[in-house]
Amino acid sequence: MKQDATRNAAYTVDCEDYVHVVEFNPFESGDSGNLIAYGGNNYVVVGTCTFQEEEADIEGIQYKTLRTFHHGVRVDGIAWSPETRLDSLPPVIKFCTSAADLKIRLFTSDLQDKNEYKVLEGHSDFINGLVFDPKEGQEIASVSDDHTCRIWNLEGIQIAHFVLHSPGMSVCWHPEETFKLMVAEKNGTIRFYDLLAQQAILSLESEQMPLMSAHWCLKNTFRVGAVAGNDWLIWDITRSSYPQDKRPVHMDRACLFRWSTINENLFATTGYPGKMASQFQIHHLGHPQPILIGSVAVGSGLSWHRTLPLCAIGGDHKLLFWVTEIFYYYHRRLPPCAPASDVTIRA
């Protein structure tokens, strides 16, 4: 596979405001389209998108807004609940947000008359990450600059509280063993907690600061990835508490790390905005260089499609989507070197 040159997004969707965060629904929701949510300065938009890579009769991307939720304050994070279903009657849309006012909001909607939200309060500083438990969706974990990881039930009651040694940057739940939680701290330490015993059971060290983002590989839960300083780092937790591999990737400091949902060797990173643009890269562990490099004027957020090697990033009044060429090696609708078409639609 040859290295891709820097290129523009394959698809874009125009939005009414700056997009601070974007998240594909990582769970099966019972609909052919894939749910996506994005947040701006005072709203969250939930929609569906289907791509030509998955539906032969679609040209580019087909996007439809399902509901706009008034938020009242800047949206900093979004997490989907596994209880979200589009094939139920009525449908269920459930997600939570973190916001600039240091609160978590739990939204529930049937896309008709029922549109409710509950406020979860307790953090005293910026919330850097939040996630639902992936099995039942009955608990939410969050991490914050206030040096805590907190576990909440859906009534907004804190049921566990872990004191950290530095700001909590990322939090991930094990996809099967939901009593295991991973928490990444800014000081470079990643700890795994047993929620039944309410204590740490394993730790990893990056030996670099600041650690800004970490992610548990859901296709291979022995793998953990992170970005710290200018580098990405990969651990095999069965081998060592220190990184198995690392590489410098972003001159302006790395910002976000996300594993692909379909390939244990595929991941994406973003850098902080430089003088002109934010850099976005897709990496494959079998290749020494990034397999795709993108540039965004002001990029925010990073999310992988549930079933495609496709990433979304938020930008200035738009969503941007990149498709890696790996797709064409596993699906033979197009030859390996076929270029992605640039398609823009208006939300």
Give an account of the 3D structure:
With 347 residues, the protein is mainly beta. It has a domain of 144 residues: YVTN repeat-like/Quinoprotein amine dehydrogenase (Methylamine Dehydrogenase, Chain H). Helices cover 1% and strands 51% of the residues. It is built from 1 helix and 30 strands. Strands 1-26-25-24-23 form a 5-stranded mixed sheet, with no helix packed on it. Strand 19 and strand 20 form a beta hairpin. The chain is globular. The two termini are 34 Å apart. The N terminus and C terminus are likely disordered.
Keywords:
single chain, 347 residues, mainly beta, Methylamine Dehydrogenase, Chain H, 5-stranded mixed sheet, 30 strands, disordered C terminus
Helices and strands in order:
Layout: E1 6-7, E2 11-14, E3 21-24, E4 34-39, E5 43-51, E6 61-70, E7 75-80, E8 93-99, E9 104-109, E10 115-120, E11 127-132, E12 139-144, E13 148-153, E14 158-163, E15 168-173, E16 180-185, E17 189-194, E18 199-205, E19 211-216, E20 223-228, E21 231-236, E22 245-248, E23 254-259, E24 266-271, E25 278-284, E26 292-296, E27 300-304, E28 310-315, E29 318-323, H1 326-330, E30 343-346
Main location: nucleus
Subcellular location: Chromosome, Centromere, Kinetochore; Nucleus, Nuclear pore complex
Protein name: Nucleoporin Nup37
